[in-house]
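Hi R.,

Here's the chain you asked about this morning:
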Amino acid sequence: MSGEPYSILGVLLVTSGTRGERLLFKYPYEYEESKKVSSKALGNPYALQHLQHKSPVKGSGPLAWFFDNILANLLAVKSPSLCKEKFDLTIDDLRFIGYPMQLHHVASKQSTSGHMIITVNVVFVLKAEVSTSVNDSYLELAKQLTVAIGHEERRCQYLSLQAKIMMAANDEVAALPEDCLVSPYKLILERSQLAQELKKVYDSVLATGIVQFHMNKWVEINFCLPHKIHTIQLGTKLLHIEPEVIHRCLAALRPYHGMLLMVEKQTILDSLPIDCAPTLTRLIKMASPVKSLQTLSLDADLNLSQVFQLVCHLVYWAKATVIYPLCETNVYVLSPQANTLVNSPLVEEFTEHFPGRSLHVEMSEFSLPSYLRENRNIPQRSDHQAQRVQLVVWMLQHRLLLQLHTYIFLVPQKPAAAPSQSDEDVVKAKVQVVEESVLSVLMEDMGLRITSSISDAASVNSDESVGPTGSMQLNMLSKSPSVGEMASDGTVITEETKAQWRLQDSLLNSLTPDVKAAILKCPAARNVEDLKLFARLSPYFNGKHHLEEIMFYENITRSHLLTLLDKFKDVLMTCNHQDPATEFYAG
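And here is the predicted structure, written out as tokens:
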């Protein structure tokens, strides 16, 4: 049995009806040596001291300790009010998760004369300490199976026919001599199609975490266990990604992100169900690591919201991952979770894709942050650069690389002697009237306003993401120097000088006086165009927006943005780390 904390320990099929509660099937099954002991000999069947055998029975499975009639009494739901609700029962170190459902039968001769099943419950056995996300995942699978069984029962009495086969096998084994050690579930598995389907579910979850089949060759079952399919090989151990982490990263998805398929396109297309949405097929065919989601929506003729939903679906099923579209300015570094062992299974796979190259040599190239393009000063052959792109794509698919982005912080130097709070209040009171009149006229005449061009899907225009805001303040003295007077630096004040001062104050009106003073000390602040651009981008300088995001939403080139950062480097600080939308594979 697998030792993974989220592994399934067993699956059971329990029903209640006109003949009481029955455990029709369980897997894996173990022969009970004490199966001839009746429930009457046990006393109260619901007493905790009688729930399990006093001594181990043949076999080591967790369910081998429980009598079938006890499991039937505990897991069968008799009240219709409890149906279509989560079934969660913990006994010692085992947890039983199910989704009971009431069956609605049509009155007929068969239903009135024979045994009628009223409720059905597919139950999964897990370890008691599993997380909430594991419970929710298995609840979803139990719901799919129970609803499918109910559908087939209404359509063709599938459960009733399978139940007859299972009960006949039980009766056949019960009639055998006591020394004949035969498990009824072995016969049931050989004869019942439903039992074989439940066994297939159990085996698929253990092996791959993905369940895909048609129950009774009619109702399609699609399920994936994120804990199983989202893993990283960390040395000799597996690092499992919790669904909460995936959901948090998908919530940070933006139009400028891209999608990288983790497997071949044709493989994904072949795995899709026949009745899948044509939009998903179209999106997969148009997918490319160099396209943003916005570009992908245009190429596939889909709404951006549709693209977001489809990409999230593919990422959840581990068919794709979120990246920033490939370009030569992308910076990559080796992931701290990368498997660097000499005998790593990736080595052989890498050699098959790139003959003559060494995986460890290529990984060493990214031991320090490196651009996608090797060296801008050295001309490279186009085929050499194309192969480097393929190498990066392969390493991203196998989660060996992380992309780093540059984030900006507005960090002005603290002045030597800041004015007291009372002094600031006096200044604010004296310029209150000037603030409302002069500033409004200036902003209206020049057509200036600090905004952030953020789409609805990005949610970047929230109070948390657009940077500091507050009441408009003018850093003006109550008694400003008159025209013709001498400034502190020895220059004569002119009307043009005073107009420039007012312009500087109006552009930075949302900042505090200390921050405004530090910015105006930069030489670039004397250039009106540079100051305008800085004021427009200042909401992004809070460490929550990287260069690529600013370029996308403000329609500015990288060179222009980097030049501005260099001009105002005295008050700006940068740092490099991952984008939140791609960091669920980070260490």
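One quick note: The first strand starts at residue 10 and ends at 17.

Cheers,
M.
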